[in-house]
Amino acid sequence: MKKIFAAIMMAAMFAVMIPALSVTTSAQTRYYPSNRQTYVYGRPSFYRRHRNLINVAIGTGAGAVVGGVVGGKKWAGIGALIGAGGAALYTFKIRPKRQFYYPGY
Question: How far is residue 44 CA from its own chain's centroid?
């Protein structure tokens, strides 16, 4: 069980770290000329781009920690599943991602 839990935690860390290693280039900034001024839309922040993954990962980790403190190894896995389910419910259903594009934002 310890090996499985360690493998799941490592996979979650790699899933978060791989997008962070991508290189930002100037092609990701767009300039939209207007009659009055030029609006610059930059690349969204890391959290805005990976909000769903980060929220579910935090919920999974919190559930694993609480389950591990309460009942040991077996309950750490159960807590991780419950935490992931709750975080996914919160992220995808209760507070879904909304994208608003404002000029000059």
Answer: 13
Q: Are 52 and 91 in contact (CB under 8 A)?
A: yes
pTM score above 0.70: no
Q: Running DSSP on this structure, what letter comes out for residue 40?
A: E
- In contact, 65 and 30? CB cutoff 8 Å: no
Q: How far apart are CA 12 and CA 55, in angstroms?
A: 12
Q: What are phi and psi of 27, to 5 degrees?
A: -75, -5
Contact 63, 89 (CB under 8 A): no
With cut-offs at 50, 70 and 90, classify the pLDDT of residue 55.
very high
- Segment 12-48, tens digit of pLDDT: 777 776 665 555 555 555 555 555 555 556 777 888 8
Tokens 């781009």 sit on residue? 49
Domains in the chain: boundaries: 1-10+45-97
d(CA 7, CA 2): 9
